[in-house]
Amino acid sequence: MTDWTDIGALTDIPERGARVVKTHLGCVAVFRTVNDEVFAIDDACPHKGGPLSEGIVHGRSVTCPLHNMVLRLDTGLAQGADEGAVSTYAVRVENGRIMLDTARLRRGQVA
Ligand code: FES
């Protein structure tokens, strides 16, 4: 079951930027790529909890601002020699608005 929640306009997020959505399970970082794709992942790096929303977006990846771990935005998986992963959340753009599936966040189920 999904529960799409409008969290703002696509243009509210700069290209290669992110916006943080606070949930009772923690902060979710919603990213916009240079191609206007959006992705939502936990805003805590699996290494030492760095704020991924403040990282550098390149392609479909983000580099953590603390120690440079690279994570895929679409899968949440660490790249290269690093190991680890963050949860990903369903998100889409509809008529210029960003819709985040908050059903899983409310039920407290984190992959
Ligand atoms: S906290 Fe992200 S790489 Fe260390």
UniProtKB/TrEMBL annotation:
Pfam families: Rieske_2
Keyword Hydrolase found: no
UniProt keyword annotation of Magnesium present: no
SUPFAM superfamilies: ISP domain
InterPro entries in the record: Rieske-like_NirD, Rieske_2Fe-2S, Rieske_2Fe-2S_sf
PROSITE patterns: RIESKE
Alphabetical keyword list: 2Fe-2S, Iron, Iron-sulfur, Metal-binding, Methyltransferase, Nitrate assimilation, Oxidoreductase, Transferase
Source taxon at top rank: Bacteria
UniProt GO MF annotations: 2 iron, 2 sulfur cluster binding; metal ion binding; methyltransferase activity; nitrite reductase [NAD(P)H] activity
GO biological process: methylation; nitrate assimilation
Designated name of the protein: tRNA-(Guanine-N1)-methyltransferase
Naturally occurring in which organism (per UniProt): Pseudosulfitobacter pseudonitzschiae
Classification lineage: Bacteria, Pseudomonadati, Pseudomonadota, Alphaproteobacteria, Rhodobacterales
